[in-house]
């Protein structure tokens, strides 16, 4: 069975971007692939969380994975730091990852621009750790949002470079995956770029947000003065609202508001009210389950232990073979 790996950084509550870009695909893939879904707590160390925050955020992502419908019986759900084989492979891959290519990564350049006071080596080698996460299980498909595309290209480079160096075909090439033809980018509510955890107040709708909070955030979303020419192109902040509508609302609703926009009769208040209700509807089951699962410490422990065991079995096999290939042999 084809192998699938993906993960989400444990830096806080998950938002609609994480759900539609990644988790929705996780849930759909778990029946037909051998899936490994993990919580990237090692990756979150680049921003120096306190021990309490680190633990709380890992728990939150685990709860939300389960609430969204990832089934620990069908997929392997684990916490990255429970599988030390990943960090060993990361070290080996680092020996063949070059400064130039790491510095050119778009996400690294963004981080340097946003946090010039914290340009650490972990940030620079972030894509190497990501490659280790993926190829430790020899995955070929990686369900991710559009923003991870370049990281996947780097993962392929690192896998191929290892193969070339040791003159074998040990690691297969991993590719970004989405059930639709294109990778997804969910925009934020602030009229700028993508929805993200660190994009500022009001940009992201979280899966754990209450209906009141969702209504408030959507009603505050940035809009313009409205169209005055029929069929005119939408400005970015309006297009963003339509893009969110595309994933949470029915086709009829979308067409209804497209027509109102195109005939210059749209009232943004109505559009936002509908969008808020459709987001609330699309996330209600998950929201309900988050509360129940978060209180069930015994279940969370069981899931984490089972996942760690299954992930280590797979990762352990790879690392034993990799050591042999590299030339670490016992006397
Ligand atoms: P992270 O935690 O930033 O995001 C997790 C997943 O959510 C997707 N995503 C989005 N998709 C569409 N629209 C958005 N606005 C949006 N925001 C986030 C991301 O594309 C991602 O799929 N480096 C990864 C975590 C990671 C990983 C891996 C992923 C570590 N190792 C190995 C895959 C395989 C990250 O920071 O994602």
Notes on the protein architecture:
This protein is mainly α and 331 residues long. The chain folds into 2 domains: 212 residues, 3-Layer(aba) Sandwich (Rossmann fold), CATH 3.40.50; 83 residues, Tyrosyl-Transfer RNA Synthetase (Orthogonal Bundle), CATH 1.10.240.10. The strands form 2 sheets. Strands 1-2-3 form a 3-stranded parallel beta sheet, sandwiched between helices. A two-stranded parallel sheet has the order 4-5. Helix 2 packs across helix 12, helix 3 crosses helix 7 and helix 9 packs antiparallel against helix 12. It is globular, with a radius of gyration of 21 Å. The model has no long low-confidence stretch (mean pLDDT 97). Tryptophanyl-5'AMP (TYM) binds next to strand 1, helix 1 and helix 7.
List the helices and strands and how they pair.
Elements: E1 3-9, H1 16-29, E2 34-40, H2 51-68, E3 76-79, H3 85-94, H4 99-104, H5 106-114, H6 121-124, H7 126-135, E4 141-143, H8 149-165, E5 175-177, H9 211-219, H10 236-248, H11 251-262, H12 268-294, H13 297-326
Parallel strand pairs: 1-2, 2-3, 4-5
Helix pairs in contact: 2-12, 3-7, 3-13, 7-8, 9-12, 10-12
């Amino acid at each position: 069975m084809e192998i699938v790996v993906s993960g989400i950084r444990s830096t806080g509550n998950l938002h609609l971007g994480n759900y539609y870009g990644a988790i929705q695909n996780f849930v759909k893939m778990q029946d037909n692939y051998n899936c490994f879904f993990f919580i990237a707590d090692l990756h979150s160390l680049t921003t120096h969380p306190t021990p309490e925050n680190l633990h709380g955020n890992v728990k939150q992502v685990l709860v939300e994975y389960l609430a969204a419908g990832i089934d620990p019986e069908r997929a392997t759900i684990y916490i990255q730091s429970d599988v030390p084989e990943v960090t060993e492979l990361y070290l080996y891959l680092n020996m063949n990852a070059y400064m130039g290519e790491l510095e050119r990564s778009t996400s690294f350049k963004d981080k340097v621009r946003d946090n010039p006071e914290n340009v650490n080596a972990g940030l620079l080698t972030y894509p190497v750790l990501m490659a280790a996460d993926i190829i430790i299980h020899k995955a070929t498909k990686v369900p991710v949002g559009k923003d991870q595309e370049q990281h996947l290209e780097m993962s392929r480079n690192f896998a191929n470079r290892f193969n070339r160096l040791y003159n074998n075909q040990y690691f297969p090439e991993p590719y970004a995956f989405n059930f639709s033809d294109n990778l997804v980018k969910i925009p934020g509510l602030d009229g700028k770029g993508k929805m993200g955890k660190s994009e500022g107040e009001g940009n992201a709708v979280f899966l754990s947000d209450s209906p009141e909070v969702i209504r408030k955030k959507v009603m505050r979303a940035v809009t313009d003065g409205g169209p005055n020419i029929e069929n005119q192109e939408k400005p970015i902040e309006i297009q963003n609202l339509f893009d969110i509508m595309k994933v949470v609302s029915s086709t009829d609703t979308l067409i209804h508001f497209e027509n109102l926009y195109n005939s210059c009769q749209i009232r943004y208040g109505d559009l936002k009210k509908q969008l808020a209700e459709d987001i609330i509807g699309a996330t209600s089951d998950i929201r309900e389950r988050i509360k129940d699962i978060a209180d069930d410490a015994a279940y969370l422990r069981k899931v984490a232990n089972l996942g760690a065991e299954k992930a280590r079995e797979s990762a352990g096999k790879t690392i034993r073979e990799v050591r042999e290939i590299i030339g670490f042999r016992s006397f």
